[in-house]
Each structure stands twice: as structure tokens, then as C-alpha cells.
């Protein structure tokens, strides 16, 4: 092979070389020609300046629009050639559109001429005799409310997945979901009003002995707050949570560089409205097992690692929210350590402290403030921030019974 540099200036960098056997030159040339005739992507023929110019034009045209990423059928949707080894320009035989036969033992839907088949696939998945979609959805809603699905492997309903513990219940819920027109709200309402959902996490010794793994849902499952719930709860308690609906977060429109380390410390919108970059998940979310944006995740992992404790005790965002919560408690307590303790427990843990807890916490406030009860309001405010931080890092705050 010979690489020449005629008609060039400066350095020449060869960063993309495809080796083609002599006997295949004619076939490759034919494939490239066919690709271009089919209306191949013009980006393949653009240089860097042309691509930047086109992207600039698109951004300018869309800057004031609310956008959502969604697929659409091409105007000339039809059968396409196999791309040999995944290379766009290497065309193999033309593959007719269709459905994997393994997914059905009946007649497969027909794909209309000029259609990609997406609509036919959606109609096939949701037809009356196909209850799989309804079962999967009902199982996922159950999982989010009960911490474990009726089918424990919520991402796998196949042969290697777990069998449902209550198949008749799953079929009933799937039928109710279908009858409601696919209303998730109606399904959630029915489940949260059930006796099973209202059970305590403490089922007693007899139940623990009979069903130690809670296979039959004789009690509720204790669960940790999700990464999003932790962040939103901290902002809510500090009276900083912005309840407005979020807007577009696309980097081209917002100007954010999603390759830079992402931090949400200065943001006050609900976490669901903040940008998620697949290759750059915010550290505070990743640390507490936020869903991997590269995958479809029905069931999140739940880990307990030392870095979570280090974040809770040392992160400035945590400390800032604790100081704000402590300041509010000290202000309402009018210099009384016991009143500040009652305020903090009620605000963070939604309960009043037991007598021993109250006195120990009050002694903590007095010790941290460096003086007697009520003598120094500024010092008491700082001490309340420290106590609030302790409560926010506690298992009682982080876990739901």
C-alpha cells in the first residue's frame, strides 16, 4: 500500500484506513455507489466546517422550541441492505422487514409498503390477546410500591427469570390495567389503598419465622430512599426546592457542556428535571445507585458502601442544607434547646423525640454551642445545624419503614 501526499501542505495524518483486497475493489465501489444512490447520510460527505455550519443553523432554528428526542419513519422507509461488519458503506444482501419468529407462535403482522414497521410492532404488542405488556407494567408498578415484584426479576420474564409468586394476582392486575385504558394512576391508587400496602415492615416473630424472606408479602419491605428522593428531600426540608416544571436540557440549546463533571449543588429544581448525560452521571446520583442511563433499568441495585457515609457526613451540599434547617429550628425555638430538638425531629424525622433522645440531643446542642441553654442564640443556631446534619445522615431519615 502506498499513501501519497501530493497536493497537500504541512503534516498529513492518516487516521482512517480501510484495507480492501484487490478482488473486492469492484464490490466495494459498487456498495459505495449504491449507498449514495439510496440517499446516504450527507454528513459522510461533509468536512468539519460544513458540519459545524449545519449544526449552527439547526441550533439557531430550534433555540426557542421545547424539544424531545423521538424516532420517526423515514419518508422512504423500506427494506435495507445488511451493513457488513456494521460499516455503513459496506452493503450486503437486502433484508426484508419482519418480526422475529421466536416472539410469536401465530401469524405475524404484515408491514405496510413504505412503513418501517414500528407502528405494526406497537399494535402487535398491545393487542388484546397479548397480555405480556400488561403483566410487565403491572409487575413494575408493584415493584416500585412493594420493593419486590410479583415476578422478582422485573427485567426478565423469560425462562431464566423467576416465576411469579402470585400468578393469579398478577393476571388480575394486568386485566385491571388493560380495562382502565393503561392508566398507571388508577393502578397505583388501587395498590396503595390495599391492605397489603398498608402493612407495617414489622410483621412479628411468628411471621418472620414462617416467611423470613417475605416471599408472600406478609409485611412491607423496608427500603432506602433513591438518589433523587434524597436530593429532593434535602431541598424540601431546607425550603429551597423549586416545584416549577423543568424545561429543555439539551446541551445544544442550553449551552451546557455535558462532558464536564456534572454537579447539582446550585440547582434547586426537582432532580427529574435536571440533565442526565449517559457518559457523565452526576456523582451524587451515581453514588446512591441512580439508574444507569445506558440501559433500560427496571430494578436498581441497592448498595451500601463507605463512600455514601463519607458523602453524607462531609459533602458541602449536605452541610449547607443542614445549616439552613438548623437555623429555622433555632429561630422557632426562641433560645430553648429542648424546643429546638423537638422542631428538628418533627421536621426531619416526622416524629417527636422520646424523652431520652430529647435530653441527649439537648445536651449535644449545649455542648456544641459552648454555653448554657439559651445563652447564645447564634451559637445555638450553629449547633442546631450540626444536629440537623446528624439526623439527615441517620438511617431513620434515609430508610422508609
Average pLDDT metric: 84
Which sheet architecture does the biggest sheet show?
Answer: 2 strands, antiparallel
Shape verdict? extended
Which percent range fits the helix content?
40-55%
Distance between the termini: 70 Å
Number of domains: 4
Gyration radius (Cα, Å) is: 30 Å
Write down the secondary-structure element order. Answer: HHEEHHHHHEHHHHHHHHHE
Number of helices: 16
Number of DSSP strand runs: 4
- Which blocks of ≥5 consecutive residues have pLDDT under 50? 251-255
Class from secondary-structure proportions: mainly alpha
Strand order of the largest sheet: 1-2
Q: What is the beta-strand fraction?
A: under 5%
Explain how this protein is built:
A two-stranded antiparallel sheet has the order 1-2. It contains 16 helices and four strands. The radius of gyration is 30 Å and the shape is extended. It has four domains: 15-49 and 76-94, no CATH class; 132-210, no CATH class; 223-303, no CATH class; 313-400, no CATH class. The N and C termini lie far apart (70 Å). The model is unreliable at 251-255 (pLDDT under 50). The chain has helices at residues 25-37, 48-62, 118-125, 132-146, 167-179, 184-192, 205-210, 227-237, 251-254, 283-287, 306-314, 316-333, 337-349, 355-369, 377-392, 395-398; strands spanning 80-83, 91-95, 223-224, 399-400. Strand 1 and strand 2 (91-95) form a beta hairpin. The chain has 401 residues and is mostly helical.
Amino acid at each position: 500500500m502506498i499513501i501519497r501526499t501530493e497536493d497537500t501542505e504541512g503534516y498529513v495524518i492518516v487516521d482512517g484506513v480501510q484495507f480492501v483486497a484487490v478482488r473486492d475493489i469492484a464490490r466495494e465501489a459498487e456498495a459505495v455507489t449504491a449507498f449514495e444512490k439510496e440517499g446516504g447520510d450527507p454528513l459522510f460527505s461533509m468536512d468539519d466546517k460544513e458540519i459545524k455550519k449545519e449544526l449552527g443553523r439547526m441550533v439557531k432554528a430550534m433555540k426557542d422550541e421545547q424539544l424531545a428526542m423521538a424516532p420517526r419513519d423515514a419518508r422512504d422507509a423500506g427494506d435495507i441492505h445488511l451493513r457488513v461488519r456494521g460499516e455503513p458503506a459496506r452493503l450486503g444482501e437486502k433484508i426484508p422487514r419482519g418480526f422475529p419468529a421466536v416472539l410469536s407462535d401465530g401469524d405475524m403482522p404484515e408491514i405496510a409498503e413504505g412503513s418501517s414497521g414500528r407502528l405494526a410492532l406497537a399494535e402487535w404488542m398491545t393487542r388484546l390477546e397479548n397480555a405480556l405488556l400488561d403483566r410487565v407494567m403491572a409487575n413494575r408498578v408493584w415493584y416500585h410500591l412493594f420493593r419486590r415484584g410479583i415476578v422478582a426479576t422485573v427485567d426478565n420474564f423469560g425462562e431464566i427469570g423467576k416465576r411469579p409468586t402470585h400468578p393469579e394476582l398478577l393476571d388480575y392486575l394486568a386485566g385491571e390495567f388493560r380495562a382502565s385504558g393503561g392508566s398507571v394512576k388508577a393502578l397505583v391508587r388501587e395498590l396503595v389503598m390495599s391492605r397489603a400496602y398498608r402493612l407495617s415492615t414489622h410483621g412479628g416473630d411468628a411471621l418472620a419465622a414462617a416467611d423470613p424472606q417475605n416471599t408472600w408479602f406478609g409485611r412491607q419491605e423496608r427500603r432506602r430512599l433513591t438518589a433523587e428522593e434524597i436530593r429532593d428531600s434535602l431541598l424540601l426540608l431546607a425550603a429551597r426546592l423549586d416545584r416549577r416544571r423543568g424545561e429543555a436540557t439539551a446541551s445544544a440549546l442550553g449551552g451546557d457542556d455535558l462532558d464536564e463533571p456534572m454537579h447539582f449543588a446550585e440547582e434547586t429544581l426537582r432532580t427529574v428535571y435536571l440533565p442526565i448525560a449517559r457518559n457523565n452521571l452526576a456523582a451524587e446520583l451515581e453514588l446512591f445507585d441512580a439508574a444507569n442511563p445506558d440501559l433500560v433499568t427496571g430494578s436498581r441495585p441497592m448498595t451500601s458502601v463507605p463512600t455514601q457515609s463519607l458523602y453524607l457526613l462531609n459533602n458541602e451540599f449536605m452541610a449547607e442544607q443542614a445549616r439552613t434547617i438548623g437555623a429555622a429550628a433555632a429561630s422557632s425555638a426562641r433560645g430553648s434547646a429542648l424546643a429546638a430538638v423537638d422542631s428538628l425531629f418533627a421536621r426531619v424525622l416526622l416524629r417527636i423525640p422520646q424523652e431520652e433522645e430529647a435530653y441527649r440531643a439537648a445536651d449535644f446542642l449545649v455542648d456544641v454551642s459552648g454555653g448554657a441553654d439559651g445563652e447564645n442564640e447564634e451559637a445555638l443556631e450553629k449547633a442546631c445545624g450540626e444536629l440537623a446534619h446528624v439526623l439527615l445522615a441517620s438511617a431513620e431519615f434515609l430508610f422508609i419503614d
